[in-house]
What does this fold into?
Amino acid sequence: MKYFKNKFFFFSLLLLLTSCQQEEFLNLEPKDELTEATTFTSYDNILTYSWSFYDVFLGFVPSIPTSERNGDLFLRAAANAESDWIWQRITVPSSSTDWNDPYSNIRRVNIMLDNLDDSGMTQENIDHWRSVGYFFRTYNYLELVKKYGAVPWIEHKVGDDDEDIIYAPRTPRDEVTRTMLEQLQWAEEHIKPEGDGPNTIDIHAVRALISRFGLFEGTWRKYHNLGEEELYLRASADASEKLISSFPDLHPNFDEVFNSESLAGVAGIILFKPYEPNQYTHGQTTRARSSSGRYDLTKKAADMYLMKDGQTRWTSPLFEGDKSPYTEFRNRDRRFYYTVTPPYSVNTPNSTSNDWSFTEEPIHREYIDLMNEISDPAHKTLPQLNWQGTVLQQVPHFVDDRRGQAFIITYTGYYYWKNYNVILNGVNWVDIADAPIFRMGEVLVNYAEAKFELGEFDQSIADQTINRLRERGHVASLDVGNIPDDPTRDATVDPVLWEIRRERAIELMGEGYRPDDLRRWKRMDYVTERKLGRWIKRSEVNNVPILNGESEGYIDYYGQPPAEFPEHYYLWPIPSDQLVLNPQLEQNPGW
It folds into this structure.
């Protein structure tokens, strides 16, 4: 695996160069020229300049789980926190960082690319840095294409006199995505296989991006009837297959992929964003241990998790019903326990106590014992603790039935705690668990889906992909010839593909993929379904709304979204300031 030997050095440079170079390279042309004359003259100088490119990797930021509410499996457990996309409240923005930031990043990359030939380096080193530049330029263009479709392709640094580029129309999507793929494949052939040391862009990172981009573009083209999908699906499958060969093992503990002080040397990690105490930290764990998180899975998401026998909750004899949280969680995919807090109840002297004891009901400790078995005190043992170490008395812990504890609260009863750990206690917003950027869990589901779309998925591919992930979740293998019945399956989706998509949803839950998946499959109609929570009885839970106002039933905070998802919502509106600055830009249809 790859990792930076000195995380603090890396991120100090990153922050310094991001602020300084954005000012000097992006805004002040005379300083541009002076700096370029001295910067791009040696391998080490270019290496230092390139650190700022890594800022595009967000790591653990709240916008990622928050973005999941734009899909069908997540919601924000707060008032007036519905998705504006689902509730059709999107308007054309006057400006947007979703447009501006990628183009700022692309300009920084283009400055380097334009200066490589005159750097005095060997051709091998020039080719390596061109490969790194192609990687980062494509990474940024992927974000633009996913949101806006056809966008202007900028090949070189743009100066004040380059009016033909500044005022160019949108480049056809076919041309943009073909260039992205060609340049990534060129980079795969020319980059130094080991990159520039541990945890830098190397041949594996390039292949991981091809895997991700190829699947997105290939399926978008298929389901949106653009054609040429096989070109991209084949590229995704080929790159994924090479990665499977290079990374034959998965880290056996799913939870530790997201809650480790260091991902250096962790099996299945291709690239990660490192964090370090007192140097470079995040707040995602604090959010999961405070009143700030409020991320929930929906009932639909909970029902996706299979039983240990590989059957759905509707077909397995192991399923004991969902009228009690204790029976609902029993005998499930282990990833369920690492993603949603299991139920429990304990006694505490008061609502702010750090002490606790078991209740007299044996069932209340069932998942306390389970989490002690499958986790450890630094990760996900129960009872749950806030960032100060205060014991949460019970789960589910509903926002309107909080019993004097205002932290770690839920709407649906399925509290998202994937980023929860207790590596640190008594401090907040200085979390240090490393964030995976590319990992084999994603690559395996990419490969499975791409092979299915190419008509090449069989039991052998299932064993290489889906079943390796299920094994880590302690779930029985998928038998391609014997797919369990699922009454929630979309009748337009092949049963095998449905299982592949299920596995993708479970493996990547809360990591920001689901809204893009629904858009590329052209299945945003799923978000028009009600986002329900678990089954409750009004006599047992106070003040929590129940579907149709019944005395018992599924929680219904958000109600029914608009019935039809608008076609033009599949692409984002281009900000109005860009249309004013460049009259040749055309707005996406329908906006």
Remarks:
- The CA atoms of residues 66 and 209 lie 23 Å apart.
- Residues 1-34 have pLDDT under 50 and may be disordered.
- Strands lie at 74-76, 269-273, 295-297, 344-347, 357-358, 394-395, 435-439, 535-537, 552-554.
- The domain at 7-75+98-273 is CATH 1.25.40.390 (Serine Threonine Protein Phosphatase 5, Tetratricopeptide repeat).
